[in-house]
Amino acid sequence: MYKFFYLLLLVSISLIAADKVQIYASKIGGGKTLVRANGDVVVLYKDYILNADDAIYNRQDKILQLFGHVKVNKGNNYQLLGNYAKLNLANKEKEFMPLYLLDQKSDLWMSAKKGKIKNNKLHIKTGMLSGCNPVDPLWKIAFSSSSYNDKTKWMNLFNARLYLYNIPIFYTPYFGYSLSKKRRSGLLIPSFGVSSDEGFYYQQPIYIAVDNWWDMEFRPQIRTLRGKGLYGTFRFVDSTHSRGEFTTGYFQEKNSYAAAHNLAHKSHYGYHLHYTNSDFINDWFNSDLSGQSGLYADIDWMNDVNFINLANNNTFQTLTSNQVLSQINMFYNTNKNYYGAYFRYYLDLSKASNASTLQNLPTLQYHHYLSGFLKNHVLYDVDLQNNTLYRQLGKNAQQTTLNAPLTLQTSLFDNYLNLSYTSHFYAQHISFSSAANPASSVNKDIYQTGKLYGQYNVFDINTALTKAYKKVTHTITVGASYTQKGASSSDGFYKIAQNECSTNPSSANCLFYNVNNIVNALQFNITQYFFNEESKQFLYDRTSQQVTYNHGTQTLGNLENEINYNITSSLNIYNDTFYNHTKSAIAKSLSTIGYHKSKISLALSYLYNNSFLNMPGTTQYTKYFTSSFTYIYNNHYRYFTSFNYDLEAGRKKSASIGFLYSKRCWDFGLSYVENTQPTLTANGQAQNIDSRYILFTIVLKPIGGSQFNYRIPQAATGT
């Protein structure tokens, strides 16, 4: 025993002095040149731990050979297994035959005839890799040679062939991927597609990541029968509380495709900017304000809707409307005051030009928060807004609005009854510029500088009661408010437009008329809440009814009832319905049903709206149905479907059905998708294109995956 430890110590010391190698074994012997170790050999070399049955170390050549059940661990990140290993400590080379490498973080393994490591690089000849069970793996990639950099965690494969159940399905002369989650530049997973009218589709994303505060992605694409294009996205984080991204792109149609489909443009281009900053004033102006500032920008511009439709080959979740809103919101907020600026730009992609589209550039707002005195029995707040309404063709306007309510409130009977009176003061001013509206139906004399001011009163009474039962707690709030029309005065535009715009707000003369018609009205509200034993709300119900008094007559407004019922922890029903007493019909109703449990997820909704306007050029009814369903059969199979339908137009808006098969080492999905997309024709008319796809999705874990898209012949369905 003592002799064993003595020999072990001599070997360890001699190796440490030269190459920092330690050998432990059950038996160690040899001469001046060779050292032999047998039985449970353990070698410590730098950050490597090597195990083997036997070992031979040549002191002169500084070569360590390991035999039988060779196992190498490095930093608990991966293992190398083989029957033979050779470590040349002089030139820092390591050889393994055969080689089995396992990355313990990702469960990715590689098997090869021979592997050599030098300068933190692993070179492999003739092997395969997979993330599946090594015994009959579901997928594997065979290669003629490979290299792996231990520092960069990057693997290169040459002459790679992908097999599914021993069936070859794909070949590439080169394939590279990362075993690290650190961002790096390189090629991302491509996407493919086939379409009868667009041909073969291929998009290859290129990712650039140099600094940790920004990255860039280029997405060149080709559609063999349609054209080619390039999209790019620049993402950045410019501070700890701000970030943004900018996307732009260009696609050039082939002349034959543009002519065959009567497209309005042969080139499609545009951009999208998204940016948020939660302290932009202090950032940009080097100030030290104690209040909160914020900036939100979401800006879109494009020459037509196909800029979005062509961004990728799966358009199921892309734009389905011709209306695009760009906006910029800025604010500065303190405990007492709020300052805001809002820019709104509307883009109607069904029009050849938006020169006559009215824009809001900008709206400026000042708001003084609710303040009180006399123990908060007197409350007041102030809101001031200025709107700049602008367009290139047509009349423009500057409109300023002031609202200043003053409230008196108190409670009676030990806070069981709450009373309040509010006097609302308001004023509005409007001025016009530019040429008259070109529409022939517009009264040109209506655009005169206008002034409006007035006052109205609101009396409010309400009570809230709560009673606890054995398993349920019930809270009910009952209230009524009466609005009394006060004095008002108007001139110019407001006086001329008042009669027409009060009865027909959709008239062309009323484009700038946004005055609320104050009438004497009584509003009733009943709200109920029900809570279970765990103090969780399971039922909410609100009923509201307005009665209008005008020239001695009473008119019932829409009766509204809103209910939200959590029948169980998984099943929820919601409905909000408006009933029109005059028409004895439902004016609007939104109903939803949601069921969410461990294996099943179901969502149904139905929207109905009746405007009661039976006029040419107007849509009286809206009837829209949406649905989605997901079923998780087991840990491997997930089935899903969705269906959205416009009942009034008799048109299916979108639909999908498919499944996803998931295993530890791979995912495979197949789905059929239909979607309706707008486009603009050469004669300036908007039409809808029904797109139909078959989507194949495959993910090889942990390497990644791609989606193959087969597009079924499409057809135009009109406006």
Tell me about this structure.
The chain is mostly beta strands. The strands form 2 sheets. It has a 27-stranded mixed beta barrel. The radius of gyration is 36 Å and the shape is elongated. The relative contact order is 0.06. The protein has 5 helices and 43 strands. A hairpin with a 4-residue loop joins strand 6 (78-88) and strand 7 (93-97). The model is unreliable at 1-18 and 715-719 (pLDDT under 50).
In terms of structural class, how would the helical and strand content be classed?
Answer: mainly beta
- Helical content stands at under 10%
Oligomer designation: single chain
- Major sheet: size, sense and barrel closure? 27 strands, mixed, barrel
Strand content: over 45%
Outline of the structure:
The protein is mainly beta and 719 residues long. The strands form two sheets. It has a 27-stranded mixed beta barrel. Strands 1, 2, 3, 4, 5, 6, 7, 8, 9, 10, 11, 12 and 13 form a 13-stranded antiparallel β-sheet that branches.
Which descriptors apply to this entry?
single chain; 719 residues; mainly beta; disordered C terminus
Which SSEs are present, and which pair or pack?
Blueprint: H1 2-19, E1 21-24, E2 27-30, E3 34-45, E4 48-58, E5 63-74, E6 78-88, E7 93-97, E8 99-103, E9 108-118, E10 121-130, E11 139-149, E12 154-164, E13 167-178, E14 186-187, E15 191-195, E16 199-203, E17 206-208, E18 214-223, E19 227-239, E20 242-253, H2 255-260, E21 267-277, H3 280-285, E22 292-302, H4 306-309, E23 323-333, E24 337-348, E25 359-373, E26 378-390, E27 396-412, E28 417-433, E29 450-468, E30 473-491, H5 493-503, E31 520-531, E32 537-550, E33 553-556, E34 559-566, E35 571-580, E36 585-596, E37 600-610, E38 621-632, E39 637-646, E40 651-662, E41 666-680, E42 686-700, E43 704-718
Parallel strand pairs: 15-43
Antiparallel strand pairs: 1-3, 2-3, 3-4, 4-5, 5-6, 6-7, 6-8, 7-9, 8-9, 9-10, 10-11, 11-12, 12-13, 14-17, 15-16, 16-18, 17-18, 18-19, 19-20, 20-21, 21-22, 22-23, 23-24, 24-25, 25-26, 26-27, 27-28, 28-29, 29-30, 30-31, 31-32, 32-33, 32-34, 34-35, 35-36, 36-37, 37-38, 38-39, 39-40, 40-41, ...
